[in-house]
Amino acid sequence: MRTRKATPLVIQKRINVGILKPEKVNPKDRYPTIGFDTQSNEWYAWNHQAYNAYHIGSKVPVGSCAYTKERGVWEAKTLEDAKQMAIDFARNLAPG
Questions:
Q1: Residue 77: is it exposed, middle or buried by C-beta count within 10 angstroms (0-12/13-18/19+)?
Q2: In the structure, what pLDDT confidence band is assigned to residue 48 with cuts at 50, 70 and 90?
Q3: Given a cut of 70, is residue 4 above it in pLDDT?
Q4: What SS3 class is residue 96?
Q5: What is the pLDDT of residues 59-79, one digit of tens each?
Q6: What is the mean pLDDT of residues 49-62?
Q7: Which of 73, 93, 96 is nearest to 25 (CA)?
Q8: Nearest to 44 by CA among 71, 25, 63
Q9: Sorting pLDDT into bands at 50, 70 and 90, what band is 20?
Q10: Distance separating alpha carbons of residues 11 and 72, to the nearest angstrom
């Protein structure tokens, strides 16, 4: 899967060696902005300026890029929760 030229280098390196499996948040998106790291069992989210990793036990406080009013302050209890945090982070950083 092709990634954006401005993908943070640390993310691109993990993709290149096959550790991080990129995914699109929405099938209509042009580039992937989340991915699962098989080495660390973390979900990553990124854009051209920032990235973050989420795992079981990650917390989303008020003011976090992954914070949404819908979920409020919460903690990842499963990898699916961690994936949702990554999705929220990616959506909150999306342009427009």
A1: exposed
A2: confident
A3: no
A4: coil
A5: 999 999 999 999 999 999 999
A6: 96
A7: 93
A8: 25
A9: very high
A10: 27
- Distance, in Å, from the CA atom of 86 to the CA atom of 5, rounded to the nearest integer, reads 20
**Cα(80)–Cα(12) distance, rounded to whole angstroms?**
23
Helices and strands, counts by H and E, the chain = 2, 6
Cβ count within 10 A of residue 80? 11
Q: For residues 60 and 71, is the Cβ–Cβ distance under 8 A?
A: yes
pLDDT at res. 54: 98
Q: Where are the domains of the chain?
A: 9-93
By the 10 Å C-beta count (0-12 exposed, 13-18 middle, 19+ buried), 48 is classed as middle
In whole angstroms, what is the distance from residue 19 CA to residue 35 CA?
Answer: 10
Contact criterion met (CB below 8 Å) for 67 and 75: no
